[in-house]
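Supplementary Text 2. Reproducibility record for the structural model of the 200-residue chain.

All settings were left at their defaults, and a single model was retained for analysis rather than an ensemble. We include the record here because the model underlies the residue-level annotations in Supplementary Table 4.
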Amino acid sequence: MWNVRGLNSDIKQKDIKWFLHQNDVNLFGLLETKVKPESLNRVACKVCYGWNFVTNTSLHNGGRVWILWKANKLSLDVLEMDAQYIHVRIQVQQTGHLFLATFVYAFNKIADRIPLWNALIRFSMGGPWIVLGDFNNVMYSNERLGKMVKDDEMFPFQTTANLCDFQDMKATGSLFTWNNKQPSETRIFSRIDRVLINGE
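Retained model, structure tokens:
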């Protein structure tokens, strides 16, 4: 999963293609592509050549979520799509292993994220499931520095995680995945990007 913050430039497109080639990736998500519907085919031809892909551009002007996959390695069925997520079922062709995956790019406002939490709870029907992306939301108070976290921001995310049996997938690197790029006295750090998995 990569929050590219715009995929219209040749430089970003080359970065993505280089990464996919260097890492032998079979499944990949792009967030915040900012690709308008009228530019979709042009950009997709440059970035997704040789890949199958799906995007929720039709539901939000600016293509918030893209999923790319290699059809000779994986079968992917879109189960549901919204402006904040794409929910899919994936089968690994070599092993037959099936799992659910939800690629998320949540809205910035607390109230606007409520439909996302409701959808995740509704999707929680059993079976292996991974949910990954930019939630624009911290889950715990220690996941933000520089500005206090209010309970009404954390509580819906925590409730969703509990109801869905989510746990954080182990990760390396910095705890904080975003900052506001302000001077040090007003800088805010937050953990808003994560990968969640259920017990199965």
